[in-house]
Amino acid sequence: MIIALEIKQKIIDVADIRFRRYGFGKTTMAEIAKDCSMSAANLYRYFENKEQIGVEITLKCLHQKEKMGAAVLQREGLSASVRLETFFLEILRYTYDVCSNAPHLFELVAFISEEHQQIVQQHQASLHGFISQILTEGVRTEEFKIDDVASKAESILIATIRFYYPPLVVMNQLRLEDLERSVKNVVCLLIRGLAKH
User: Fold this and answer.
1) Where are the domains of the chain?
2) Torsion on CA atoms 16, 22, 28, 32, rounded to nearest 10
3) Which of 90, 98, 110, 189 is such that its CA lies 20 to 30 A from the CA of 22?
4) Among residues 92, 88, 81, 90, which one has the least CA distance to residue 193?
5) Superfamily of domain 50-194
């Protein structure tokens, strides 16, 4: 079982490299098998098609973004306001980096997200959970006054989608510095609405 998992991971890693270089659409299962030094028949024992491999790579990409978000929650000495801004800055930087430096990977993630909506929903749920934790912390420290944390976290996700949803991040071809400035402005407005008056 362990060997099978290792082989699957090798296939995912090798396919990731090929997808980043040539694109998902231009890659065949035969090419992935050749890169893995195995027969196409053997490759099909682990994955029915390249879309299944694409799903695994997309999940890896989204989980990396979630790990960055979770790391912000673990940083000590941040107020809830600063933590909220830092959270979205880190998410933006990761998304921007993928979109700018790995355009074929961005295309893959966009395609898989469109075809497998449950992946997007799970990712949204993770982000919602992180924001809820930050808001709860702000309520506990009396930095924020919020009656319904879950509802406010949902509203914040909607208000900030421009900074974490890849197609919107690259839509106007803005520089990272411009997007970072926009993040700070938007989060500042949100914090004013959340603050105790």
Assistant:
1) 1-48, 50-194
2) -40
3) 90
4) 81
5) Tetracycline Repressor, domain 2 (1.10.357.10)
Both tokens of 135, joined, read 């808001």
**Does residue 153 contact residue 131 with C-beta atoms inside 8 Å?**
yes
Q: What is the pLDDT along the chain (197 residues), one digit of tens a residue?
A: 667 889 999 999 999 999 999 999 999 999 999 999 999 999 999 999 999 999 999 999 999 999 999 999 999 999 999 999 999 999 999 999 988 888 898 889 888 888 999 998 999 999 999 999 999 999 999 999 999 999 999 999 999 999 998 888 888 788 999 999 999 999 999 999 998 65
The angle subtended at Cα 183 by Cα 178 and Cα 184, nearest 5°, is 100
Q: Evaluate whether 168 touches 106 at the Cβ level (below 8 Å).
A: no
Is the domain defined by 1-48 classed in CATH 1.10.10.60? yes
Tokens matching residue 58: 């997309």
Residue 138: name the closest of 85, 186, 90 by CA. Answer: 85
Q: Residue written as tokens 């890693």? A: 13
